[in-house]
Amino acid sequence: MILSAAAFFLAIAFFLLGLYQALWGERLQISQRVEEVLGAPALSFREQELKAPFLQRVVRPVLRKMIGLAGVLIPAEKTAVLEEKLNRAGRPGGLSAGEYALLKYFTAGAAGVFSFFFSGTLHLEPVQTCLLSFLGVLLGWHLPNFYLEARIRDRAELIRKELPDVLDLLTVSVEAGLGFDGALLKVAEKKKGLLAKEFSQILREINMGKPRREALRDAAERLGVDEFSSFAGSIIVADRLGISIGNVLRAQSAQMRNKRRQRAEERAMKAPVKMLFPMVFFIFPAVFLVLLGPAVIKISKVFTR
Questions:
Q1: How does it sit in the membrane (predicted)?
Q2: Which of 48, 229, 257, 265 could form a disulfide with 220 if both were Cys (CB 3.0 to 4.6 A apart)?
Q3: What does the pLDDT look like over 147-163, one tens digit per residue?
């Protein structure tokens, strides 16, 4: 019976597939070929809006309206600090400082409500319920900060890893006869990653009329990484004093590689200290149990006779 039912359903499926190919297969092939030659048709404004992510279509307009209605809840003196942190984190979700602050209020309230109902399911006392709800509000308030700080650290570490190789490519391009802007363009085309995107942003700002030193200074402020700030400062000084940019890039590349090697050595020196606690509390007891367990059992049997 099972085999007969499976064969029946497979026969129906193949019949429908063949019918679909016979009716619309040629038309689909023609439309696909036309799209390959002429390109995809332009989307309408409504289709473009519907194709946007949910955060951009729904969440951000609601946040903008709430910012206008509850602007008092966002301290004005913290706006600049939040903007700087969001820039260093790569502007997650394209959020502004006001939208991020409102998200913190929302996560704090949502975590507090969840903790309150969760404590109700546990049948806790009122004092314990209030304490658990307060802890939920604190956790919800600080979770976005933890996420933002983690993104800032990850981006900074990634930039530190990419910078020596990018400086080598810049040095080779400059020594091959390209100007500094041409070398930046070459790196932006050949490399992928955060620094390639930043170089593309720098080139766009330069093409729009911003001076090179200001574009580099703004990029250093956006990233907030000491190594990139040192690189940008060296290029600005070389541009002002007329020093050869190739020599500056070569020196910066060597310096970045030395710093990367020093960070690797520092982590290697910290590794034994970090391994000490797991070994003492987890590995050594298991080893002692395996080695001394049989001896303890034999000794206990001898003394119990």
A1: Multi-pass membrane protein
A2: 229
A3: 999 999 888 888 888 88
